[in-house]
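Handout, section 3.2

Students often ask what a structure token actually looks like in practice. Rather than define it abstractly, here is a full record for Capsule biosynthesis protein CapB. The first block is the sequence as you would receive it.
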Amino acid sequence: MNCLCALATLATVTTVAFLVEAWLYRRRLNGIPIRVHVNGTRGKSSVARLIAAGLRGGGIRTCAKTTGTLARMIFPNGEELPIFRPARANVIEQKRVVRAAAKAKAEALVIECMALQPLLQSTCELQLVRSTHGVITNARADHLDVMGPDRLHVAKALSGTTPVAGTLFTAESRLDSLQVMQHAAQDRGSEMQIITQNDSAKITEEELAQFSYLEHAENVALALRVCESIGVGREEALRGMWAATPDPGAMKVHTTDVQAMPSFDSGQPTEPSVFHFVNGFAANDPESTEQLWETAFNRFPDSDRRVMVMNCREDRPDRSEIMGAAIGKWSAADQVVVIGTGTELFMRAAKKSGVDPSKLVCLGEVESPEQVAEVIACDDALCEPGVMVMGIGNVKNGGFALDQFFEEHSNWIPQRVAIAQQEAASGRASVAGAS
């Protein structure tokens, strides 16, 4: 009898504690009047940062949380702190984000959806965020093992973060995906606003040039529409966006002077090759990656050589296979360097898609990013004055390190080139001595 009473007391206390915690959480959440939930296949982190920066530019105390390349909490003064994760990423961490935003007296919270499972995406919205403004950047064929089997199923899963009695914004352009999102908006009593190509065209080249990285016009147009709906004007929002720190996975460009081989006739070093490294690792699906590749391909028309670096992950086999099957249809690279784990799937698919096998170089797991750069530099690249290198696929397990390498080296002499220079100098000295 005493055991039963103890169990009943424990159950009652646990239930009361749970209800009190739920009440406190809901109170904190409701204390933040503007809540923007950002979802989508491509560009979530960038758009979340743009919206938050635009709102700050309009004088609204705004916190943001991104889960892109590196999970970050951004405070009203623009300060960023990493999200502490004692174990694997868990959607419950969104509750800690709300607590921090409430403590910072935020008037607005822009939070990136971190869930993949369709049910969890809906749960995050209905239980944890309860957004006033929902954003779906786009719906593309990625994470098909979780949200698939096809693109429309992805659109349906992403629509789980549609707000109740709020506004849903999207830059998706396909009619069938838009119909899925419209159905979700109607079901939850929300208005839907679509950012079209005409809206994106209004973002001028001069405005895009103000960003410290390569930003897409549709992302800016989408963020501006959200800011406008909250009461922040275009100029104020843009000024805030230009001043903001980009996501670590943003499409940044690093320029490096790479010392070429010496001329064996004169013994003097030739003019260095200029390497433009473009970080395109954040694009996870073939459609987005193709857009980035073509943008970079055309951004540097003076490049005499274009090199693609594909970073594979064995825990993302579908991505490797889909990317390999797609690149044969893109503007051809002069060299495709494949790194990471599970590279066989990509190599096989790339060859089937029509990529010249002689242009494929598989390195697998590498000890340092310099090894990758050495392979590029020791090909025919140093004979060319301009080289464009773009990383794609996955930023983890090698991609981020390669980006950091090019960021930290504005001037670089490859080790193998240095050895060749020494050997050439030694050979000239021997010839001189013999004469």
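Discussion prompt for tutorial groups: Residues 253-412 form a domain with the Protein-Tyrosine Phosphatase; Chain A fold (CATH 3.90.190.20). How would you have guessed this from the sequence alone?
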